[in-house]
Specification:
Strand order of the largest sheet of chain B: 2-3-1-4
Largest interface: A-B, 32 and 29 residues
Largest sheet of chain B: 4 strands, antiparallel
Shape of chain A: globular
Largest sheet of chain A: none
Number of strands of chain A: 0
Strand content of chain B: 5-15%
Shape of chain B: elongated
Number of helices of chain B: 4
CATH topology of the largest domain in chain A: Growth Hormone, Chain: A
CATH architecture of the largest domain in chain A: Up-down Bundle
Radius of gyration of chain B: 17 Å
Oligomer: heterodimer
Helix content of chain A: over 70%
Structural class of chain B: alpha+beta
Number of helices of chain A: 17
Helix content of chain B: 40-55%
Number of domains of chain B: 1
CATH superfamily of the largest domain in chain A: MFS general substrate transporter like domains
Strand content of chain A: under 5%
Radius of gyration of chain A: 21 Å
Structural class of chain A: mainly alpha
Number of domains of chain A: 2
Order of helices and strands of chain B: HEHEEHEH
Distance between the termini of chain B: 53 Å
Chain lengths: ~400, ~120
């Protein structure tokens, strides 16, 4: 009888699913990292002040954060593949719409709302949820690291070819390439369809909670709240660096060349750091390496701002902070899964990520606001240090075990 | 469950980087300017070229040096005269490329590799 059992087709094999998940994460995160390249050409083409396009991208980041828990809930209910496919379609439509948007509200709708929702629905957190269900528990952290590292690689690789395409063939062609890339997520998500029948099913050892009950229970769980607060700091620190680091370097006489090279170092070291963090997370308790990352960031920030800024110190800082950049993600996702299981992990991680995005918003906004107020970035740098220590401390008491209300009776 | 190991994914990532390099090579090839081109461009010289030599070559071509990259042999040049790209080549530049939006230093490295290959194949 067993001899008649049909073998699993190659496209549903774990290796295919992992590779496809990596490619989805590369495209999703890669494409979203290029929108800054369109600020000038789109603003010039429509004779807009820079604020018009910037507002759409700010809206995109906000929508990405808000839509992530919703996308996660949909993925937990209907399976990651369908959400990724729908997200890719929305992402591509939004990007295509940006080509034809010739008014502020239209670019807000296309580049802000649609692209933001598209990014959330086809993001690597949805991929992580899929991979987390695919692999055995002892390999879960590694799988999260793999998906995060893939996203980081996309971020490092997309920006140049797209920049070059915009320069050579115009911004419309650049956007068209991004839309085509986003559509490639649809076939790449197909291998994940194998999970659709079991995505929302109660797993062995997990309590039978509805999604609303799970969310309510999670927000009543102290360790989850500590994790959410810690991830807020991650968003604050990273977004501040992303936006304000290049002008900070320029103020200290570091050339644009070195600023670009530093951002590249951050991108490449991020790949290594995210992957390594996934491996480390699989070897023991995750809260210790997570705390260590926040403490290390605080230490690196302190050393950087207290030492004279040179090309050497900038590159070393970039490599070090790059290594720690998204290395918090596999550990955070891993702790969410340990506490609440896999059934609602995309939803519950989505809320943690929302806190990250609020932190990002404040990191960017306060960076600019306090710079205008004091004429330098010192206050925000020291805020980042203080928040790093705070996040390191609050991650230590996290109880890395199944939350009582999520345990099967 | 049979899952691939670290080596598999290192190989996958390296493979993706190779594909990326191929795309970059094609895009940089497409950025190479015809001799009659003018405007703002990236001039790429031999790496042993000093800043003074590169500056002189740009001036002799009728171009205006806008900025030097962190490498002395890669310059952003501007000029109104027709044929600036050709003149730069005649004055010792390996090639002239459309100004690249991302770091001239890194873009210049791709351009240098492209210019070298073009020289070898007599393009």
């Amino acid at each position: 009888m067993n001899a008649l059992a049909k073998p699993t087709p190659w496209y549903f094999q774990p290796t295919t699913i992992l590779v496809a998940g990596c490619l989805v994460a590369i495209i999703n995160f890669g494409a979203r990292s290029t929108f800054g390249l369109f600020t000038l050409p789109i603003s010039q083409a429509h004779q807009w002040p820079r604020e018009t396009y910037s507002f759409a991208i700010a809206l995109q980041n906000l929508l990405w954060g808000i839509a992530t828990p919703v996308a996660g809930a949909l993925a937990d209910r209907y399976g990651s593949a369908r959400v990724l496919m729908a997200g890719a379609l929305i992402y591509a439509l939004g990007i295509l719409g940006m080509i034809y948007a010739d008014t502020g509200p239209m670019i807000d709708l296309m580049g802000g709302v649609l692209v933001g929702i598209g990014i959330a629905m086809s993001s690597f957190s949805i991929v992580m949820a899929a991979l987390g269900r695919l692999v055995p528990p002892e390999k879960r952290s590694w799988a999260f690291g793999l998906a995060t590292a893939s996203g980081s690689l996309g971020q490092a690789l997309f920006i140049w070819p797209i920049g070059q395409t915009v320069s050579l063939f115009g911004w419309q062609t650049g956007l068209l390439c991004l839309a085509v890339a986003a559509l490639c997520i649809i076939p790449l998500a197909a291998p994940l369809l194998i999970q659709n029948t079991s995505g929302a099913a109660k797993q062995k050892g997990e309590a039978d909670l509805t999604m609303v009950q799970a969310i309510a229970q999670a927000f009543g769980h102290r360790s989850y709240l500590l994790l959410v607060a810690g991830f807020f700091v991650c968003g604050f620190q990273l977004a501040f660096i992303t936006v304000h680091f290049p002008p900070y370097l320029a103020e200290h006489g570091i050339s644009k060349e070195i600023a670009w090279a530093s951002m590249l170092c951050i991108g490449l070291f991020n790949v290594v750091g995210a992957y390594a963090s996934g491996i480390i997370g699989g070897r023991g308790e995750k809260r210790y390496p997570l705390s260590a990352i926040y403490f290390a960031r605080a230490a690196i920030y302190t050393i950087f701002i207290l030492t004279p800024i040179s090309t050497f110190s900038t590159v070393i800082f970039a490599c070090a902070i790059g290594f720690l950049w998204l290395s918090t993600v596999p550990l955070t996702m891993g702790i969410v899964t340990t506490m609440f299981g896999t059934r609602y992990m995309a939803t519950l991680y989505g809320f943690v990520f929302l806190s990250h995005q609020i932190g990002s918003f404040l990191g960017v906004w306060l960076g600019g606001r306090l710079y205008d107020l004091y004429g330098n970035y010192n206050v925000v740098w020291w805020m980042s240090v203080g928040l790093g220590v705070f996040a390191g401390l609050i991650n230590l008491p996290i109880k890395e075990q199944r939350a009582p209300s999520f345990e099967a009776a | 469950m049979n899952l691939p190991g670290h080596k598999f994914f290192v190989g996958l990532f390296l493979g993706i980087i190779v594909v990326w390099l191929m795309v970059m090579v094609m895009l940089v090839r497409a950025s190479a300017l015809a001799p009659e081109a003018t405007g703002t461009m990236l001039a790429v010289f031999e790496p042993k070229t000093t800043s003074d030599q590169a500056f002189a070559a740009i001036a002799n071509s009728g171009g205006k040096p806008i900025r030097q990259s962190s490498f002395s042999f890669i310059w952003v040049v501007s000029g109104d005269e027709a044929g600036l790209a050709g003149k730069l080549k005649a004055n010792g530049a390996l090639g002239a490329y459309r100004e690249l939006p991302i770091s001239p230093m890194i873009a210049g490295c791709f351009a240098y590799a492209d210019a070298k290959v073009s020289t070898v194949f007599g393009d």
